[in-house]
Amino acid sequence: MSYAKTNLNEVEDQAAKHGFGELQEARFPRTDVGAEEGGIAHIRVKPGQRQPFAHRHEEAEEIHVILSGAGRMKIDDEVLDVGERDVIRVEPSAARAFEAGPDGLEYIVFSTRHENDAEMVQDFWED
Predict the structure, then answer these.
(1) DSSP reduced 3-state for 85
(2) Which of 45, 84, 93, 118 is most buried by its number of CB atoms within 10 A?
(3) Which residue from 120, 70, 66, 126 is spatially nearest to 95, judged by alpha carbons?
(4) Which one, of 34, 62, 49, 38, lies nearest residue 100 by Cα?
(5) Does domain 26-115 have CATH number 2.60.120.10?
């Protein structure tokens, strides 16, 4: 077959699986569609919540596309306001995380796939 199709509602929510369901939904349909080189994530940060940790990569750059809602994105030490239809490219080594506004924040991330490339960054947000 020359294509594969899935529905995001059928992809397992990794945030809920790992105890972060009260903060966000995180679905990674890459394997569901058999992607070999590309990565994709669908994230919904719940209203007024922050992601529980940031992350960075050694090789994978990411393109974040805000689908709905608004909030803030922290990239290393810089905080950006983000909203619907914003597109943000993040270089691999920059730590990044999102905070949703009162209506929540939904976005898609596109990247290249590099096995075991992500590093989690704890205590990323400073109030």
Answers:
(1) coil
(2) 45
(3) 120
(4) 49
(5) yes
Q: For 92-121, b where at least 16 C-beta lie within 10 A, e where not — what string? A: bebbbbbbbbeebbbbebebeeeeebeeee
Task: Please report where in the chains the tokens 């950006």 appear, as a residue.
Answer: 80
For residues 100 and 96, give the distance between their C-alpha atoms in angstroms, rounded to a whole number. 14
Alpha-carbon span 61 to 25, nearest angstrom: 22
What angle is formed at CA 110 by the lines to CA 17 and CA 5, rounded to 5 degrees?
70
Return all residues near 112 (Cβ < 8 A) that are at least 6 apart.
Answer: 37, 38, 39, 59, 60, 61
**Ranges of each domain in the chain:** 26-115
